[in-house]
Amino acid sequence: MVTSPVAGTPFAAAGSRTFTHESPASHARAALDTANHCGFPQGCHSHRLADVAGRTVAISPDVPAVFDVPLAPHHKLIGRWLVSREVDMHRYTRPGARRYIERAFETAVLDVLDPIAFVDLRVAVLRSEQSGAPAIAIICEGMGQIDLGWIEAGTAPVPWRAAVYAALERSLGRVLPIFGYHDLFEEISMYYWDGATEDDAAREHLIAWHGATGDDLDAMPLPSQMNARRPDWMIGAHGAVASELPSVLQSRLEALQDARDALDRLACEEDAWRFDFELACEFLPGIEECASLPPLTLVPFDQFDRELDEVARNGMEMGFMDIAGICPLPDVGRIDDWFASLHLGARFLVAAQDLLQFDPSSLGDFDVRP
């Protein structure tokens, strides 16, 4: 692929329940339009993230209408990767090369991510002001509770539902910014009871620090009361062992574990789904001001809406830490590694999706046990 300047041409402008507070976009996705999955920085330095070619991009009005912007380092790097995959060489103008690079990369990413329906993901190519090498980030666009489907609302036996829920709670954090009940309990415990997990210690804190007495104490939540609100299927001890599950659920749980094992074998520098906070701060200055809470949860709103809104308040105000992974690209070869790990993560998420979309009625009649 060869580029040539253009003289005299116009300048190229470079499923879930959510928390109940209104939220601004987080820092990681603020400059990305929600209609598309991939983003590139453009020539204008006023935008750190930019949109894929062919979409409207907001730029400063003082930028002239005609400009043949040279290809930026991230375009050149991905352009070299595309050249290595091309059979026939073509000659492009700079604006044409830019559009081709962005569209070809977008197509390659969407081919991998399109089968995933239960969570909305976006990929953005970032540039750093500190180094010339770009990075690719996977960003979670969703917010709130993952739709648990038959696990939460179905009539299947509790041991089946508890086994699958426990597997998802153990595993989904490997690739998604998501928190479970234990994370929620820890946050609430620190907020209300100074980290206490037993009722007696919680009462002592409420008395010492909040001046609670008599009727006040009776009206205040305690750890045991919060734990008691968990449905049976949220308690791992109620889950069936693998041999007691239907063969279809056994197979789907094995697929989830196999995909997780494959991800865990990835080298850190090749892992598209690894979140590195320091690296994120380098490419997205200001992200350290976001709340540390992830935007997604497996905790059901029906039982814990008050607690979820409580812990999510800061995220609603400052933005959630919504990056699923960020991977630097020091050379062209790393792009193939990134796509290989992207495929592995997508395989894992499809396995999780297969569990969430399981239809117990496909097994016929079964005994519903408490």
What does this structure look like?
The chain is an alpha/beta fold and 370 residues long. 42% of the residues lie in helices and 9% in strands. The protein has 12 helices and 10 strands. The protein has helices at 73-85, 94-113, 150-153, 158-171, 181-193, 199-210, 215-219, 223-228, 247-264, 277-283, 301-318, 333-356; strands at residues 2-4, 16-17, 38-39, 91-93, 121-126, 135-140, 144-146, 178-179, 296-297, 323-328. Strand 5 (121-126) and strand 6 (135-140) form a beta hairpin. It is globular and about 80 Å long.
Distance between the termini: 64 Å
Number of helices: 12
The unreliable regions are: 1-15, 20-67
State Rg. 24 Å
Classify the helix fraction into a percent range. Answer: 40-55%
Main sheet properties = 4 strands, mixed
The chain-level mean pLDDT equals 79
Annotation keywords:
9% strand, alpha/beta, single chain, 10 strands, 370 residues, four-stranded mixed β-sheet, disordered N terminus
